[in-house]
Structures are given as structure tokens and as C-alpha cells.
């Protein structure tokens, strides 16, 4: 029997590695598209790929379809974060944030869709609860994840008739190397005082105490095998409740509460 194929960007660590491992243990042939790799060879095949390059993404997908003959699940996971005030964020970092977190995911979707149509597969993007609940001093990150939610929601309706689904998962705090790899502003204006430092410190402490990336991998697996999955899935009971309250309560109130939590 021909093995099913998972393609995942950013599969060398954190949520990506947990997902690659979980699928490989259940019989999938796994391809990791990342710049440096690092996942064990018995887990997945690494293809060097920077998702900010359309040529590299197209080339990687072509290589996979030639080698494996199919793609059943494609997970857009590559991403990083910026910490600091919007005012103090340099243009280079802001552009890179959107380039990787948003455009990179959509590039991968564009390239993988023909193969996914053939298998009637699943396209899954890793967004964030911050895409629904904007976090102070993570404005660019929140914007990138919110845009990803909107784009995949639209895409899901574009491709549903072809048998492919475009889905997003929204993790909350998760204990991964993502925290240590975050870019911190070097020149936030003095008017913010210690707010940036204290807010980011709280956020990173919460992340380090967060859920295991395996919890996210299990949700991705469930969505990949669900006959009629929801377009967006918040991960974890507390975050589901928080997301529901954010929808039901007045925005003026919820935004004030978020500001207090991170000040």
C-alpha cells in the first residue's frame, strides 16, 4: 500500500517536529521544508527551503511530487515572532514577519494545491490565539496571524468544491524554541518605560510554562483525518473559553482587559 505523504514547513523543531514525528509514527512519509533541518532522518526527509522564496517553495514541492508521487497533508508551520512596540520595530523585521508568517504560508498553499487536489487532501496552517486576541508589544505578530486566519478562511471556500480543505489551528502558549528565537526590538522609545520589558517577560514566562507541542500535533492529526473538520480550531479548553468570551463581550472591555494583563 502506498504511504501517505505529509509536507510540513518548519518541521525541524517545536510544533513542526512534534507534528512530523506524530505523523511518521503513524505511517506517513514526511518531508520537512526548512532552512537548516535538524529533525532525525528516520522521522523525515529534509529539503532545504526558505518559504520567503517562491522559487524554493515551488522547487521543493516539485521534488516531493516526483519522489513520492503524492501529497496528502500539507502543514504551513514556519514562523517566528517579534517582541516590542510597533513604533520601535524596524521596517526590515516587520517585513520579514509578514513575509514568513503570512506570505510563506500562502506560497506553500499555492504550490501544494495541485497535488492536494489529486489526493483530496488537507491544507493546515498554524496560526495563533494572538490572531484573534491582539497582544500588546506583539502587534506585527498578531497582525500576521490574523491575516493568515482570514486568508485561509477565504481559501477554504475557494477550494472546498475540489475536495481539499484549508484549515487553521490556533495554539496558545506552547513550550517550544519559538520563545528563544523571537526577535526583540533594540530601540523602543523611552515613553513606554518598563512596559515593553515587563509585558514581554510575562509573555515569555507563560510560553515556557505552556502546553507541549505534542498537544498541537494531535489536533493537526485529528483535523487531517476528520471527514468534515471545522475551518478554525482553538487548542486547549482555557483558550477556547477565552476566545468565546472575546467574541461575546464588548470589544472595548476585552481589549482593556488584555491591556491590563500585559502591562
Description:
This protein has 263 residues and is α/β, with parallel strands linked by helices. It has a single domain, classed as Rossmann fold (3-Layer(aba) Sandwich), CATH 3.40.50. It has helices at residues 14-24, 54-68, 91-119, 139-159, 178-181, 195-208, 213-225, 237-248, 251-261, and strands spanning 5-9, 29-34, 45-48, 73-76, 82-83, 122-126, 165-170, 183-184, 232-234. The strands form two sheets. Strands 3-2-1-4-6-7-9 form a seven-stranded parallel β-sheet, with helices on both faces. It is globular and about 60 Å long. The mean pLDDT is 93.
What's the short story on this structure?
The protein has 263 residues and is of the alpha/beta class. It has one domain: NAD(P)-binding Rossmann-like Domain (Rossmann fold, 3-Layer(aba) Sandwich), CATH 3.40.50.720. The chain has helices at residues 14-24, 54-68, 91-119, 139-159, 178-181, 195-208, 213-225, 237-248, 251-261, and strands at 5-9, 29-34, 45-48, 73-76, 82-83, 122-126, 165-170, 183-184, 232-234.
Rg over CA atoms: 18 Å
Low-confidence spans: pLDDT under 50, at least 5 residues? none
Structural class: alpha/beta
Individual helix count: 9
| CATH level-two architecture | 3-Layer(aba) Sandwich
* Helical percentage: 40-55%
Strand order of the largest sheet: 3-2-1-4-6-7-9
Count structural domains: 1
Could you list some keywords that capture this structure?
single chain; 263 residues; alpha/beta; Rossmann fold; seven-stranded parallel β-sheet; two-stranded parallel sheet; 9 helices; globular
Task: Please describe the topology of this protein.
Layout: E1 5-9, H1 14-24, E2 29-34, E3 45-48, H2 54-68, E4 73-76, E5 82-83, H3 91-119, E6 122-126, H4 139-159, E7 165-170, H5 178-181, E8 183-184, H6 195-208, H7 213-225, E9 232-234, H8 237-248, H9 251-261
Helix pairs in contact: 1-7, 2-3, 3-4
Amino acid at each position: 500500500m502506498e504511504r501517505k505523504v505529509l509536507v510540513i514547513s518548519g518541521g525541524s523543531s517545536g510544533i513542526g517536529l512534534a507534528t512530523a514525528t506524530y505523523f511518521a509514527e503513524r505511517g506517513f512519509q514526511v518531508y520537512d521544508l526548512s532552512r537548516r533541518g535538524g529533525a532525525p532522518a528516520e522521522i523525515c526527509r529534509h529539503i532545504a527551503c526558505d518559504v520567503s522564496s517562491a522559487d524554493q517553495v515551488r522547487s521543493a514541492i516539485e521534488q516531493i511530487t516526483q519522489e513520492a508521487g503524492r501529497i496528502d497533508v500539507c502543514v504551513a508551520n514556519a514562523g517566528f515572532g517579534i517582541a516590542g512596540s510597533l513604533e520601535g520595530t524596524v521596517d526590515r523585521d516587520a517585513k520579514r514577519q509578514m513575509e514568513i508568517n503570512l506570505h510563506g504560508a500562502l506560497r506553500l498553499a499555492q504550490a501544494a494545491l495541485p497535488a492536494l487536489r489529486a489526493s483530496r487532501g488537507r491544507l493546515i496552517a498554524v496560526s495563533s490565539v494572538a490572531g484573534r486576541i491582539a497582544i500588546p508589544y506583539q502587534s506585527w505578530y498578531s497582525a500576521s496571524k490574523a491575516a493568515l486566519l482570514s486568508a485561509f478562511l477565504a481559501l477554504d471556500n475557494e477550494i472546498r468544491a475540489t475536495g481539499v480543505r484549508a484549515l487553521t489551528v490556533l495554539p496558545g502558549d506552547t513550550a517550544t524554541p519559538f520563545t528563544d528565537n523571537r526577535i526583540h526590538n533594540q530601540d523602543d522609545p523611552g515613553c513606554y518605560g518598563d512596559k515593553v520589558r515587563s509585558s514581554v517577560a510575562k509573555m515569555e514566562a507563560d510560553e515556557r510554562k505552556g502546553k507541549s507541542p505534542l498537544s498541537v500535533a494531535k489536533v493537526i492529526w485529528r483535523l487531517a483525518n476528520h471527514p468534515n473538520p471545522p475551518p478554525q480550531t482553538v487548542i486547549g479548553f482555557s483558550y477556547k473559553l477565552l476566545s468565546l468570551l472575546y467574541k461575546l463581550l464588548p470589544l472595548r472591555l476585552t481589549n482593556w482587559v488584555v491591556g491590563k494583563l500585559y502591562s
